[in-house]
Design brief:
Length: 298
């Protein structure tokens, strides 16, 4: 997750320093009609613009490309339209539209937004969304889905693959708090197996090792499943809790197959010590119990 912070700020880093495009820049847009320039004036104006474009430093050693690039000096904005892209081998960015607003300290991108960070010595991160905005001064940003396609996050390294999707993701790179809302799903695959998570809303506090799932929360590792209205994992306190809508735990252990319903369920973070509170109901199907001699008396 810490490396993912870099991905969120890629777009801001690219355009913040004043990136340039490989296309011929469009002239400044003026609302008031200007008198026609003479040929000499046009040449002088074009020379000045060319020198200004050449003076703009490259961002992260690469170029931002687009079909059209418009600079609004009064608004302190740069607008990129059509096939916007950036690729330096490690960072990749693509979209149909991007706007750098220096006055508001924001970067906005829309139309099939794609971000990728690929480090040969580290994980690979990918983000896909319909719309995104990042404030590089506050560190706050939002990724949205405006179509049927959800916001997608993918992380892959040598030991695991993590995928997540949601309708919207808000984040703060300073506090490292991430909030996923709307049909949240996440999957983590390792050599040991696959874990899945889903909820209506998920709040992740990276610095505190804290996860809060709200609404139709489901956690599963393939052998054990926990369903509840609310699930809280607090790594700092070494505890996990599930409550609301009568939490249901199902699964298979060495003793057999079980299903348990309670008013609330709590355990240590490793799940080795479990407490069931309130109205507790359930059953256990165990071959050892079924084959016990005492059963022949009934």
């Amino acid at each position: 997750m810490k490396q993912l912070l870099v991905v969120f700020s890629i777009l801001g880093t690219i355009l913040l320093v004043g990136c340039r495009t490989a296309q011929v820049p469009s002239p400044d847009v003026q609302n008031i009609p200007q008198p026609k320039q003479t040929l000499a004036q046009k040449k002088a104006s074009l020379k000045g613009k060319t020198q200004a474009a050449s003076a703009v430093p490259e961002a992260l050693g690469g170029l931002v490309k687009s079909d059209e690039w418009v600079i609004y000096k009064d608004k302190q904005q740069e607008e990129f339209k059509g096939h916007v892209s950036y690729d330096n081998g490690i960072y990749v960015f693509k979209s149909g539209y991007a706007l750098s607003d220096r006055a508001q300290n924001t970067i906005t991108a829309s139309q099939n937004v794609y971000l990728k960070q690929q480090n040969p010595q580290g994980p690979t991160y990918q983000i896909q969304c319909d719309w995104g905005r990042y404030n590089y001064k506050t560190g706050k940003g939002t990724l949205k889905s405006t179509s049927k396609n959800p916001v997608r996050l993918n992380m892959q390294d040598a030991t695991q693959t993590v995928t997540a999707r949601a309708k919207q993701i808000t984040f703060n790179t300073t506090t490292q708090i991430f909030i996923l809302t709307g049909d949240v799903h996440a999957t983590r695959t390792t050599p040991e197996g696959t874990q899945t998570m889903q909820a209506d809303k998920a709040t992740v506090k990276q610095l505190e090792d804290f996860v809060h799932l709200e609404g139709n929360a489901v956690l599963s590792d393939g052998e054990h499943t926990l369903q509840a209205d609310t699930v809280i994992y607090d790594g700092a306190k070494n505890e996990a809790r599930a409550f609301g809508a009568r939490p249901l735990a199902t699964g298979t252990t060495e003793q057999g197959t079980f299903a348990i319903i309670a008013d609330s369920v709590s355990s240590d973070a490793q799940g080795t010590v479990v407490h069931l509170d309130g109205r507790v109901q359930g059953w256990l199907v165990s071959p050892e119990i079924n084959n016990n001699k005492i059963n022949k008396q009934f």
